[in-house]
TrEMBL record:
Belongs to the group II decarboxylase family. The keyword Transferase applies. PANTHER family: GROUP II PYRIDOXAL-5-PHOSPHATE DECARBOXYLASE, MIP05841P. The modification N6-(pyridoxal phosphate)lysine is found at K307. Keywords: Aminotransferase, Decarboxylase, Lyase, Pyridoxal phosphate, Transferase. The keyword Nucleotide-binding does not apply. This is Aspartate aminotransferase family protein. It holds the Pfam family Pyridoxal_deC. Its cofactor is pyridoxal 5'-phosphate. GO terms for biological process: amino acid metabolic process; carboxylic acid metabolic process. It comes from Pseudonocardia bannensis. GO terms for cellular component: cytoplasm.
């Protein structure tokens, strides 16, 4: 089947680039949240697939008519929900290069550049983040680009299971016998659900997941509670496998003390995986590097370039201090994948670092971002949002109608509405305010629950967000809270 001829591709490509440019130029004027009802998008599309070819124009018309209204605009400057999903146009250019080459980089030999560009980038970023030489290929470790922090946690867990099984007296390892129900994984109540999912995917069962208490008055993992849990489990004949401290939890941005956790975990030979999916990239800035204090003691570290680092989904960065750990757990070589380069032992085959065999040339997308912004540009991006969040948190502090639920963490501010009517009234008012704002389409916020209390999250980090948008959000919060208080007063 002949593909587009190059001239036709050029014409259609320009048309598509124009579409994206127009979309981004106008995205601020769209309602942030899609308001369509469930099933609306499906109802708008013909159930019959086209039997004959149709022109691209017709598809773009359908995208305008159906897809755009059915889209929540993550690149909108007033998107403050979840965490950001920066999809810079720069990274889109890198994505085009990647798909343009059309490489499948499962093995070094299936495209050496796909592997080695990734190695160079991840070595460089390890240095830029302050991870230390032990996480570089020259230092015996190394990094890889995974599709998601969830996958990063899963493969770290599999490597931890493998390492733990190697020390067992029977000589029969995890790879031969699987799991036996004695494995234990340590997290906090704030840990991302992807860890619980990794435990489930690995077949460990829910009992394997131990929730470690936080230190008093905080949401961060207590090293003393961890030490007690590890000791009790070991004494009971259970096998501590992995501890996951989080740097920047999803709910509130809580930061587990990596150094103290790693020191405790080391005494039991437990794998430490740091989940810094959102916040880790802030360590590019020297002033935020203490977030990662103690990272030189851990076994694996993950941060997502596809959240706050300007790189369109997907690009989750995972470093391990032992480059043999993931291949040890995951490598299986059927005859059709054997090749001289692999046999020589001189190359990295990234298929052995991940669940799937095939992989995209994601490094080109990340490289385009790092190249085009420079590390200085990436730092400026992070700093701008942290400063906007600090100023926003000051306004929350100064207004008696609001309270910070926890201290701000980098660019995440968690707050609640204060009514004077007690906790339940504050929770109800906070929920109403969030619902009103989201329904208005002017901004998008998400929530969490901390200690049973409803909390509004304001995650600053969309690329287009400026002071103007944060000011507008504050004005809308103040006005909406006043309206909700008036409704409550009228009803009561
Ligand atoms: C977003 C997030 C994740 C999950 O990221 P994916 O790349 O979507 O799997 C994991 N952990 C934390 C702390 C997160 O914020």
């Amino acid at each position: 089947m002949p593909d587009l001829d190059p001239e036709e591709f050029r014409r259609l490509g320009h048309q598509l680039v124009d579409w994206v440019a127009d979309y981004r130029a106008g995205v601020a004027d769209l309602p942030v949240r899609s308001e369509v009802a469930p099933g609306w998008v499906r109802s708008q599309l013909p159930a019959e697939l086209p039997e004959e070819p149709r022109p691209l124009d017709a598809l773009l018309a359908e995208v305008d008519r159906v897809v755009v209204p059915g889209t929540t605009h993550w690149q909108h400057p007033s998107f403050f929900g979840y965490f950001p999903a920066n999809a810079s146009l720069t990274s889109l250019l890198g994505d085009m290069l990647s798909t343009g080459l059309g490489v499948q980089g499962m093995l070094w030999s299936t495209s050496p550049a796909c592997t080695e560009v990734e190695q160079v980038l991840l070595d460089g970023l390890a240095g830029a983040l302050g991870l230390g030489p032990e996480f570089t290929f020259a230092g015996g470790g190394g990094g890889s680009i995974q599709d998601s922090a969830s996958s990063s946690a899963l493969v770290a867990l599999l490597a931890a299971l493998h390492r733990s099984s190697k020390t067992r007296a029977s000589g029969e390892g995890w790879r031969e016998t699987g799991v036996d129900g004695t494995e234990r994984i340590y997290v906090t109540a704030e840990t991302h659900s992807s860890l619980a999912k990794a435990v489930r995917v690995a077949g460990l069962g829910a009992r394997a997941l131990r929730i470690v208490d936080p230190s008093p008055g905080s949401l961060a993992m207590s090293p003393a509670a961890l030490a007690a849990a590890l000791a009790a489990d070991a004494a009971a004949g259970l096998r501590p496998i992995l501890v996951c401290p989080t740097v920047g939890t999803t709910g509130t941005g809580a930061i587990d003390p990596v150094r103290a956790v790693a020191e405790v975990a080391r005494e039991h030979g437990v794998w430490v995986h740091v989940d810094a999916a959102w916040a880790g990239v802030a360590a590019l800035c020297p002033e935020f590097r203490d977030l990662l204090d103690g990272v030189e003691l851990v076994d694996s570290f993950c941060t997502n370039a596809h959240k706050w680092l300007l790189t369109a989904f997907d690009a989750s960065l995972l470093w391990v201090r032992d480059a043999t750990a993931l291949p040890g757990a995951l490598s299986i070589t059927p005859e059709y994948l054997r090749n001289a380069a692999t046999d020589s032992g001189d190359v990295v085959d990234y298929r052995d670092w991940q669940v799937s065999l095939g992989r995209r040339f994601r490094a080109l997308k990340l490289w385009t971002v790092v190249h085009s912004y420079g590390l200085a540009g990436l730092r400026a991006h992070v700093r701008e949002h942290v400063a906007l969040a600090a100023a926003f948190a000051d306004r929350v502090r100064e207004d008696p109608g609001f309270a910070l639920a926890v201290e701000p963490s980098l660019a995440l501010v968690c707050l609640r509405v204060v009514t004077g009517g007690g906790d339940a009234a504050d929770d109800a008012a906070s929920r109403r305010v969030l619902e009103h704002i989201n329904a208005s389409g002017a901004a998008l916020l998400t929530h969490t629950v901390v200690d049973g209390r409803y909390v509004i999250r304001v995650a600053i980090g969309s690329m287009a967000t400026t002071k103007e948008h944060v000011d507008a959000l504050w004005a809308q919060l103040v006005a909406t809270a006043a309206q909700v208080r008036a409704e409550v007063a009228a009803a009561g």
